[in-house]
Specification:
Elements (H helix, E strand, L loop, with lengths): L15 H13 L12 E5 L2 E4 L4 E4 L2 H4 L8 H11 L13 H13 L7 E6 L2 H16 L3 E5 L8 H6 L16 E4 L13 H18 L6 E7 L1 E2 L5 E2 L2 H14 L2 E6 L13 H6 L6 E4 L10 E6 H4 L15 H16 L2 H22 L3 E7 L2 E6 L10 H12 L3 E2 L1 E3 L5 E4 L7 H19 L1
Parallel strand pairs: 3-15, 5-6, 5-7, 7-10, 10-11
Antiparallel strand pairs: 1-2, 2-3, 4-12, 8-9, 11-12, 13-14, 14-17, 16-17
Length: about 450
């Protein structure tokens, strides 16, 4: 079976059949929707996919965090078939459908935001979830501004492009919405030289306070928005002491704390949501967004907060035609059932233990690796030209990604400077597949160092 197979590439990529499809893509699709991989998928199972030329790949990108449960899970397929035979669509503004309610009830029990009872709304993408979270915070507080961070990625709508730090994602798209102020995110690998971790956290907390002086007064700020583990920013975990300080700042000034778990949710970090680590430390968010793996590949995202907050939102300002699609909700309900039954958060921790051991060996062995970090199975390896200067090395990352795919392993870059390789492999990966991937990865590093 494909789900138990190992990587196998028998030709230089792209193969002849893949090249034909890629050529058609160039004629039919916008060039701005870029793809740097010479692969055309024919079918996928578990953590593996086969291309149209019969090559087999291990996918450590997972649709950029969408496939935590893997490709084409049979139970999700059955759930989608069952729902699709009843009805494809029902808009909640017109007729209530039970799948939305059932999924919202599950989310309200699971999501670790402050306050009970809780309520959840569904939209279609991570960017929509983040945008609606901001709309909720503004509606409830009556305040116009938000604070976001360096390294942040929140989406490609006009608002979320403005919230996103890396401006390669918004070239030529302005002007953008105003009222968005940026503080420095706590990157402990690149903290100011000579500082201890404790001093650095205090430094990064001060950077938020500076926004109140130089950007927006605190009583004009509706929300502080951040990722528990930055995704595009380079898989940088937020230190828990910093999160506690943000919670205290929000409480002091009546600001909503919004956590973006679009990429970190659904068992990836060793908890069903990374916000559980925050809740355990006494700093749960007011609002949490999630998407990516929520429905195993179908378009769906969610915003969860307390009923007290959600019910203060101005009627008519949130919602939409496809929000909470019943087929996507059916898939999400089955995904939750499978992940809980098979203890997916524990899978993430076991995978992390194996990978981090190898990654840290490489850090000691290879001069091109400056840092290894992450939370659970949301891990990043940062490549540098010099371990002392920490100068980013995006070139070797590009070379490693290109070399690995020719040997059947899909890797993806991340980071402000494009010098981090991220790990988002489906959590259903087998031990043999994981070891095969680590071997291909290491060989690619050695090859590209020459």
């Amino acid at each position: 079976m494909l789900r138990d197979a190992l990587p196998k590439v028998t030709m230089h990529l792209p193969g002849p059949n893949a090249q034909k499809v890629i050529d058609r893509r160039a004629l039919a699709m916008p060039n701005a929707i870029k793809c740097g991989y010479p692969c055309v998928i024919a079918r996928g199972e578990g953590a593996m996919f086969e291309d149209v030329d019969g090559n087999i790949f291990l996918d450590w990108v997972g649709g950029v965090g969408v496939l935590n449960i893997g490709y084409s899970h049979p139970e999700l397929i059955d759930a989608v078939k069952e729902q699709s035979q009843k009805y494809f669509h029902a808009m909640m503004n017109i007729t209530t459908h039970e799948r939305y309610i059932e999924l919202a009830e599950k989310m309200n029990r699971m999501v670790p935001v402050k306050g009970k009872p809780r309520k959840t709304m569904f939209v279609n993408s991570g960017a929509e979830a983040d945008e609606n979270a901001v709309k909720i915070a503004k509606s409830v507080t009556g305040r116009p501004n938000i604070i976001v961070f360096s390294g942040a990625f929140h989406g490609r709508t006009m608002l979320t492009m403005a919230m996103t730090a890396k401006k390669a994602y918004s070239v030529g798209m302005g002007p953008f919405p105003d009222g968005i102020y940026r503080a420095e995110f706590p990157n402990m690998y690149r903290k100011p030289e000579g500082m201890t971790d404790e001093e650095a956290i205090a430094y990064y907390i001060d950077k938020i306070e500076e926004v109140f002086v130089e950007g927006s007064p605190a009583d004009y700020v509706a929300a502080i928005v951040f990722e528990v583990v930055q995704g595009e920013g380079g898989f940088i975990p937020a230190p828990i002491e910093w999160c506690k300080a943000v919670r205290a700042i929000c409480d002091k000034h009546g600001i909503m704390m919004i956590v973006d778990e679009v990429q970190s949710g659904w068992a990836r970090t060793g908890r069903m949501f990374a916000s559980q680590y925050l809740a355990e430390a006494g700093c749960a968010p007011d609002i949490m967004t999630t998407a990516k793996s929520i429905a195993g590949g179908l378009p769906l995202s969610a915003v969860t907060t307390s009923a007290e907050i959600m019910d203060k939102v101005t009627p008519g300002t949130i919602g939409g035609t496809y929000c909470g699609n019943p087929v996507a909700c059916a898939s999400a309900l089955k995904l939750i059932e499978v992940m809980e039954r098979e203890e997916y958060p524990k899978k993430a921790l076991r995978i992390s233990e194996k990978c981090m051991a190898r990654f840290n060996e490489w850090k000691d062995k290879y001069p091109v690796i400056g840092d290894v970090r992450g939370l659970g199975s949301m891990m990043g390896v940062e490549f540098v030209k010099d371990k002392v200067t920490k100068e980013p090395d995006a070139d070797i990352v590009s070379a490693i990604v290109a070399e690995a795919v020719q040997n059947g392993l899909l890797l993806e870059s991340a980071g402000t400077y494009g010098n981090v390789i991220r790990f988002l492999c489906p959590l259903c990966v087998t031990d043999a597949q994981l070891e095969a991937g680590l071997d291909i990865y290491e060989k690619a590093i050695v090859t590209c160092m020459k």
